[in-house]
Design a protein that fits this description.
By secondary structure, the protein is of the alpha/beta class. It contains 10 helices and 11 strands. It has one domain (4-103, 175-263): Rossmann fold (3-Layer(aba) Sandwich), CATH 3.40.50.300. A hairpin with a 4-residue loop joins β1 (4-6) and β2. It binds adenosine-5'-triphosphate. The site of adenosine-5'-triphosphate has 15 residues, from β3, α1 and β11. Pfam families: ABC_tran.
Length: 268
């Protein structure tokens, strides 16, 4: 695969979005998106409801393919390879680019079985016990659950369930983890633990997260992309990218007035 490199910073670019337009039927949900996602950094997507943050996130692992009315124009490159090329297998894309959702959604199975589910499907030949221990240690859950691995995952707290879902996402050895508002269903203490975990995980993975929580974006992310919605002549709401930069720049010295207004809570 050809390497994408940001020449100015020499950072490797994992996902490069070029002129992306996304439609659901006739609705243009996202217009003309150009955005690079750098390796081993956390990129946060912020913006008002309906501006297309989740839509873009789901384009990165081809999850929108499952929606009948979905159509994309433009390109997304993963290490230089077009993710939407005919020869690319979406299942393999989803193995390399995992996703964690807003609401913790463990399978109604034991903690152990949640972890080995994906590897089993992909024909993992290694030692499952070691895999379970390693994955749970990576999300700092091992000490809390090591004596009840055969208990139902649903007996865990919401925060523990979300860390289990993150552990499940990393068992198939992805390269990128997408997170769609991963803390919005969690209490403040569980939220801080997941945030700590995200900071730790970026040493190994590239992370893209959607969040409505401005403080969370400023605490956790290295780069922030601000999206907004505009109305077309027909009154349809079209999402677009306003600006993206290092997080401290977006929060302390944004270039666009709308970004300033959004982060100061004056709209959205
Ligand atoms: N499956 C779908 N079918 C049709 N339209 C959709 C679908 N999913 C999203 N949309 C539309 O696409 C636009 C962008 O939605 P999206 O969920 O990506 O925005 P968002 O910024 O993530 O919003 P929120 O912050 O409320 O989650 C909205 O107008 C939404 O109604």
């Amino acid at each position: 695969m050809a390497a994408n490199v940001d020449v100015a910073s020499q950072t490797q670019i994992v996902l490069r979005t070029e002129g992306l337009r996304v439609y659901y039927g006739n609705l243009l949900a996202l217009s003309n998106i150009w955005l690079d996602i750098p390796k081993n950094q956390v990129t946060a997507f912020i913006g008002p409801s309906g501006c297309g943050k989740s839509t873009l996130l789901r384009c990165y692992n081809r999850l929108n393919d499952l929606i009948e009315s979905f159509r994309a124009e433009g390109n997304i490159f993963y290490y230089g390879e077009n993710l939407y090329s005919k020869h690319i297998d979406p299942v393999e894309v989803r193995r390399r680019i995992g996703i964690v959702f807003q609401k913790p959604n463990p399978f109604p199975k034991s903690i152990y079985d949640n972890i080995i589910f994906g590897p089993k499907i992909h024909g993992y030949k290694g030692n499952m016990d070691e895999l379970v221990e390693h994955s749970l240690k990576q999300v700092a859950l091992w000490d809390e659950v090591k004596d009840k691995l055969r208990k139902s995952s649903l007996s865990l707290s919401g925060g523990q369930q979300q860390r289990l879902c993150i552990a499940r996402a990393i068992t198939t050895k992805p390269d990128v983890i997408l997170m769609d508002e991963p803390c919005s269903a969690l209490d403040p203490i569980s939220t801080l633990r997941v945030e700590e975990l995200i900071r730790e995980l970026k040493k190994t993975y590239t992370i893209v997260m959607v969040t409505h929580n401005m403080q969370q974006a400023s605490r956790v992310s290295d780069r922030t992309a601000f999206f907004n919605v505009k109305s077309s002549e027909k009154g349809e709401r079209i999402g677009y990218l306003v600006e993206h930069e290092r997080t401290e720049v977006i929060f302390q010295d944004p270039q666009q007035e709308s970004t300033k207004e959004y982060i100061s809570g004056r709209f959205g």
